[in-house]
Design goal:
The chain is of the alpha+beta class. It contains three helices and two strands, in the order H-E-H-E-H. It is 18% helix and 8% strand.
Length: 106
């Protein structure tokens, strides 16, 4: 399963609770990680405002994301191919054999 980690991660969306997931590397918008849409994230030291610019098409999606901050509650992964958001090895295997369609996410 580890050799297919990146393929599996494409199907995980993070529900924001306390904000503990990675702003750059975790898919919390539902359209992939922000890192896929920008090139200035290798280091946050001495960051400039320009490093945080994202394509204009993503701004409405970011602004429309429903954040319900809950201190002390870790962010949770949602498995996009499953209507309940629950991961299973069988559903991951099905992705590689193209047996399932993507379910709408919560």
């Amino acid at each position: 399963m580890m050799k297919n980690k990146h393929k599996v991660e494409e199907h995980i969306r993070w529900k924001i609770n306390s904000g503990s997931c990675s702003i750059w590397w975790d898919d919390w918008l539902g359209d992939g990680a922000l890192a896929k849409h920008t090139t200035h994230i290798s280091s946050l030291n001495n960051s400039k405002v320009s490093h945080f610019l994202v394509p204009l098409l993503l701004i409405p999606q970011i602004l429309n994301t429903n954040f319900q901050y809950q201190e002390g509650l870790e962010d949770s992964a949602i498995w996009k191919p499953n209507e309940q958001g629950s991961f299973s090895c069988a559903s991951a295997r099905d992705i590689f054999t193209r047996k399932i369609k993507m379910s709408p996410i919560l």
